[in-house]
Prior knowledge:
Layout: E1 4-7, H1 12-25, E2 30-34, E3 47-50, H2 56-66, E4 70-73, H3 79-84, H4 86-106, E5 111-117, H5 141-160, E6 164-169, E7 171-173, H6 186-195, E8 200-202, E9 210-214, H7 215-227, E10 239-240, E11 244-246, H8 248-258, E12 264-266, H9 270-275, H10 285-291, H11 299-315
Parallel strand pairs: 1-2, 1-4, 2-3, 4-5, 5-6, 6-10, 7-9, 8-12
Antiparallel strand pairs: 9-11
The structure holds serine.
The site of serine (SER) has 11 residues, from loops.
Amino acid sequence: MNKILVIGAGGQLGTELTKALVDTYGSDSVIATDFQESAKSIFTYCHFACLNVLDKEAVAHLIQEEQVTQIYHLAAILSANGEKNPIHAWDINMQGLLHVLELAREYKIEKVFWPSSIAVFGPNTPKSNTPQDAVKNPTTVYGISKLAGEHWCDYYFNTYGVDVRSLRFPGLIGYKSFPGGGTTDYAVDIYYKAVQGENFTCFLQEDTYLPMMYMEDAVHATLQLMAAPASDISIRTSYNLAGMSFSPSEIAAQITAHYPEFSIQYAPDFRQKIADTWPASIDDSSARKDWGWKAAFDLPAMTTEIITKLPNHLSKK
Ligand code: SER
């Protein structure tokens, strides 16, 4: 039987991915963990443990006790928050991954998933349809840690045979969990404001194009990558992954079609500088070719889905 350990399950991706893992593999197969005890309230449907990935002994103990066979290591500090305390962000993002990789080697974990990001790219990267192997010169600690992490994953696969798989996620947009500390997160906040009848002040300029993805696509891509035969995985750093690309003014226009009263103002801050170094769109042909990836949601479809479902979600809170 699979025994799947999710580290950082209480985060934006973890909240939805853990549910999908339980739906796919059964609640007895999944252990949700987070460093915050308060995350327990989310996981009424599977086993939960409080776990700090920096405590390697505690992770090792859980792996042994629960006879873990797969690890999804999601805990990280994102781009904008990382800049506020770079050394701390490096410790969490890098040391956390090294603990997981080392324990995966030691305990012969069958498969590991670890998310990378478009933040590995930088100002010298071609902006449009960014290729898999484009130049990478990240300017944020988050991006530096993701780029180094990609190479550590490749190293553990090549040197020790650890079956670690990774995706370079674009900005992830969902309505079920609130993100924290990312440069793309305006595109989540804007829906919350719109459905609550508020206007929105955006921290990016109106014409800043960034690659984005609806959470359902991100969860689907993760499950698909992890279910693929190992022989189909030709990239052991991390796969480029594309969903959609849009600017703040384009998402605002989509929202205005549903809420004509809605309006957006622009007050760019330090996050503009980060966004300016990232791609506008991504070439994900390797993921398509290797394991059949194809995104289902574009901006209009995502907007309709969120605007239809978010009010009900908020009323249950
Ligand atoms: N969503 C992330 C961020 O903005 C990018 O991977 O930091």
